[in-house]
Amino acid sequence: MPLTRTLLRAELPALRDLLLRLGRDDRALRFGAAVGDAGIEAHCQRLGQAGPGVQVIGAFEERRLIAAAELWFSAGPPPRDCEVAIAVDAPWRGQGIGGVLVGRAVLAARNRWADRLRLSCLPENRRMQSLARRFAQELHVLEGSAEAEIRLPYPSWPSLWAEAATDLAGLAGRL
Q1: Which of 32, 40, 63, 119 has the most CB atoms in a 10 Å sphere around its CB?
Q2: With a threshold of 0.90, does the pTM exceed it?
């Protein structure tokens, strides 16, 4: 299984490269609409300027970013909402990496005092809906979108240590 860890800001070009490798249909599933190369470039620039309201968790195989979970936190004091978006490089799909990333997103959002993690996707995004069903109590398919919400407990010392240990293991694998 690939190593996972929080991306450093200097590694955002690797995320851009991952998103640029997505095909047209996969980009539409990831972003909810057709997105060209310029749109991905602009998205990654926004990520780089977002500050602490955004966190990116990456999955790496032999130092190459093969999947990522973007966490977008609502502004304001805790408790707050967090939304997650997942992208997995085509050759790595169906191997459980998306589930690992959602699990890491749950831990990271919890540790930043989010009380719920939201997953939303297009109704035709069956892979994301499958992930949502594994983690959330309910999945609502509405006109134009499918949405799930994962309720999160408060952070604890074990959850903080678990996140730190996973990030350290991922960083050690980077060396």
Answers
A1: 119
A2: yes
